[in-house]
Design brief:
Length: 435
């Protein structure tokens, strides 16, 4: 734990500028989770971005990095598109409300994305993030367990009930951050980082995160976490020819899932919903949750998304090239709900529950392609080119998460993606200058 506070021997390898950057990132992460520290977190974001943009390196260095990180330009262009779209929207006020929410998608890339974070600092940031995430989730789970025993209510151990007390953030977003923390610990173990020398402590943290992932009951996060672990294990087994290691990993995961299912069975109800995909727009039944029985004649997390996606696609087809515009996308979505007599979604003003569809509807094919290239395709290409497995895992996790949630409609989603995509860009080693 000494390394979290720069009290270890390795801290001497950092420059003063590195230490300031690390401290700002650490404070940003600590203040990100608690709900009552939103204002402080925003202030730290301003300090962090200002420091990276004006102080950490020179503008000459930024220009040099920008020539090699052209995706940053595309990310900035995507945000500029937000401003233009808001201005030409019928509802300009609504448009700029989304511009403000999505500000981290611009701030992080043009600040952190234009510095170079060296390996030692990268490892320290990843370690700090993983430990902080573990501690925050442990606090939430312990509190939920105490309340569950006190109130004789086992449902307090699941889903949003875990995060309501301390974070007041939807579990689906926190579950993704748990996955990223697991990937970071795995990376640090793989590179034999000095920060994970005491492996017993690290494995205990990973265990806590795996339990948290299951209790948060996000289907996409559970599927993406275990799929990524299996894929990495397969790739490692093929590369090193260690078939027994692969069998051990798969067997351990299977055994772990059996234990979790038996101890915490209600998470499985989230997957049972996938059997009931029939929907009728005029249905007004209550929406099933993890603690309810599921039938073919009620709304659940699966069929309501299918219905909403169908309506969202209608908006895309109506405005295929340049979109309905940022300030009018919700209005157009509500019109489709109304036309289809989809009162269940209309009354609750359901968003599109799909980040891709939301971007496509707001900005059309033009904006959608800008987003795909700047935030996904080019970072993926560069990660493959440099062998950055961690970056690939993080981006892949977000890509899967974008299927079922509109991440950019919430501050937490914009903060999460903006930070991590910029971090992935920042630690990519620049090519040497020509002498």
């Amino acid at each position: 734990m000494r390394s979290l506070f720069l009290m270890d021997d390795q801290a001497g390898l950092l420059t003063v500028k590195d230490k300031i950057l690390y401290a700002l990132v650490g404070i940003f992460l600590v203040t990100f989770y608690p709900d009552h520290m939103i204002v402080v977190n925003n202030v730290v974001l301003i300090l962090l971005s200002t420091y990276c943009f004006f102080i950490y390196n020179s503008f000459r260095e930024k220009l040099y990095l920008l020539r090699q990180r052209r995706e940053v330009l595309v990310m900035a262009a995507f945000y500029l598109l937000h401003i233009i779209s808001a201005l030409v929207s019928n509802d300009v006020t609504e448009g700029f409300s989304w511009v403000l929410i999505r500000l981290p998608l611009f701030v992080f890339p043009v600040s952190m994305g234009l510095v170079f974070i060296k390996q030692e600092l990268k490892e320290r940031i990843l370690y700090a993030y993983s430990v902080i995430t573990t501690i925050m989730l442990l606090i939430c789970m312990v509190w939920s367990a105490i309340q569950s025993i006190k109130l004789h209510d086992v449902t307090l151990l699941y889903n949003d009930n875990i995060t309501d007390f301390f974070m007041d953030k939807q579990s689906v977003y926190i579950a993704l951050m748990v996955n990223v923390a697991v990937f970071c610990f795995g990376y640090l173990l793989r590179v034999k980082s000095s920060f994970v020398g005491k492996k017993g402590w690290v494995y205990a943290c990973i265990f806590i995160l795996l339990v948290a992932n299951f209790l948060l009951a996000s289907r996409v996060s559970i599927i993406s976490l275990y799929s990524c672990i299996i894929l990495v294990a397969i790739a490692g087994a093929i590369k090193k020819g260690k078939t027994k290691q692969l069998i051990f990993v798969v067997a351990a995961m299977a055994a772990g899932l059996v234990v979790l299912v038996n101890f915490f069975p209600k998470t499985i109800n989230r997957f049972k919903e996938l059997k009931y995909t029939r929907y009728k727009y005029t249905d007004m039944g209550v929406e099933a949750h993890f603690n309810m029985s599921t039938s073919d004649y009620q709304w659940n997390g699966a069929n309501i998304r299918l219905a909403v996606w169908s309506c969202g696609w209608d908006v895309v087809k109506k405005y295929p090239v340049f979109g309905a515009q940022l300030g009018d996308k919700v209005t157009e979505q509500m019109k489709v709900y109304k036309d289809k007599h989809f009162e269940f979604a209309y009354k609750s003003r359901r968003n599109m529950h799909n980040n891709y569809l939301d971007i496509w509807a707001a900005f059309g094919t033009v904006g959608f392609l800008i987003f795909l290239y700047g935030f996904l395709f080019e970072p993926i290409r560069q990660s493959i080119k440099t062998g950055d497995i961690l970056g690939l895992l993080i981006i892949a996790s977000f890509m899967l998460a974008f299927i079922s949630e509109t991440y950019f409609d919430r501050s937490i989603g914009s903060f999460m993606f903006g930070f991590f995509i910029a971090l992935i860009v920042s630690y990519r080693k620049p090519e040497p200058k020509n002498s």
